[in-house]
Write a structure and sequence with these properties.
This protein has 108 residues and is an all-alpha fold. The chain has 5 helices and no strands. It is globular and about 50 Å long.
Amino acid sequence: MLGYLVVFLSGTLFAVGLGVSGMTLPQKVIGFLDLGGHWDPSLAFVMAGSAGVYLLFYRWIKQRSSPLFDTEFHIPTRHDIDQRLLVGAALFGVGWGLVGLCPVPARP
């Protein structure tokens, strides 16, 4: 039961972060993607900040012998870049650019 609470709180924190950062505002996202016009770099700072927090916590958590709610860490072992990965990333980016919304919070 505690695991579900942690998942809920993590999702809530993620949603609040998306809202506060402006990732749910189409004009903000389009401004970030408009490299040839009036480019808005603020989402780049959001991404850099989130990557920094991730790196700090990842290193700290990896020092543990196991996660809090599982018996072992499940870290992907594949490092190759294949066609499926490239096509999926391209579809994600094109969809984001065409609609002007980050696909995750834009889902119904």
